[in-house]
Write a structure and sequence with these properties.
The complex is a heterodimer of chains A (68) and B (176). Chain A has 68 residues and is an all-alpha fold. Chain A has one domain. Chain A contains three helices and no strands. Chain A starts with 18 loop residues before the first helix and ends in an 8-residue tail after the last helix. The relative contact order of chain A is 0.18. With 176 residues, chain B is α+β, with helices and mostly antiparallel strands. In chain B, strand 3 and strand 4 form a beta hairpin. The longest helix of chain B has 19 residues. Chain B is globular and about 55 Å long. Classes of the chains: A mainly alpha (68), B alpha+beta (176). Chains A and B meet through helix 1 and helix 3 of A and helix 1, strand 1, strand 2, strand 4 and strand 5 of B.
Chain lengths: 68, 176
């Protein structure tokens, strides 16, 4: 069992998500930049590549960060 | 969960999830909208977080949510749109994951379980592609599963009671 943090984690939640999280996710899971991902997502590329579609759907959960 | 202001509704949505995340890892959930109603918003761990006592496996958590008007109970509440709760290996590949993404590139729109490539059953070729249907999965159930079956060390006394309590609230207020 690890020691308790100085600030309870559930109170340390004010730092917002930003598009850097999307960038890391596209590189981690699809080895591409977020710009390339968005371009392919918008063009329907992933619908033509079912082997990537599921990962793309997971990453697409983060797309609202672009409009923040 | 209904509340008086959008911000209070978001806090009521976030707090139990963060408490449950804190049972199994050091990750801190972040979100991108406390105030704007009807905006598609994101709650996530910024990066997969190593699990307590199991530094070899990582929790990935993403939800989309919206603050919505709830005139009968609220006036505001938060509703979950999509979720992904996955356990990954250091490679970034999934061991297993609970997913629900009712709109997107995949044809699978029902909540489902994936057995990932890192689960060690690669000879069962269907497994990493298959979408095993599930009902809606409460994150609390994932937490219990991780502690009971994956030897993750809970970082709280009375963690089970906490998970039961927050799940009761979730079950009471969920819309489906």
């Amino acid at each position: 069992m690890s020691s308790a943090p100085a600030v309870p984690r559930e109170q340390n939640v004010s730092e917002p998500l930003d598009r850097a999280v999307l960038e890391r996710a596209t590189r981690r899971y699809l080895q591409m930049s977020s710009e390339e991902f968005v371009e392919k997502w918008n063009s329907g590329f992933f619908k033509q590549h079912p082997e990537l579609a599921h990962k793309a759907d997971d990453i697409a959960l983060l797309l609202p960060l672009l409009s923040a | 969960m209904p509340d008086r202001t959008p911000r209070e509704a978001v806090k009521a949505y976030l707090e139990p999830l963060q408490k449950n995340v804190a049972i199994v890892c050091q990750g801190v959930l972040r979100l991108n909208n406390y105030d704007t109603v009807d905006k598609i918003s994101v709650l996530a761990l910024p990066d997969p977080a190593p699990l307590n006592g199991r530094a070899d496996i990582f929790l990935s958590f993403v939800q989309q949510y919206k603050i919505v008007n709830d005139p009968q109970n609220g006036p505001y509440r938060v509703t979950t749109r999509y979720y992904k709760y996955a356990i990954e290996a250091k490679t970034g590949l999934e061991i297993f994951g609970y997913h629900w993404h009712p709109e997107g590139a995949s044809h699978v729109i029902f909540p489902h379980l994936h057995i990932g490539a890192e689960a060690g059953i690669a000879n069962l070729k269907v497994a990493s592609k298959a979408h095993f249907p599930t009902g809606r999965i409460a994150f609390e159930d994932v937490v219990k599963f991780l502690v009971d079956e994956f030897d993750v060390h809970p970082d709280r006394a009375l963690w089970h009671e906490l998970a039961d309590r927050t799940k009761d609230v979730f079950m009471k207020h969920r819309s489906w």
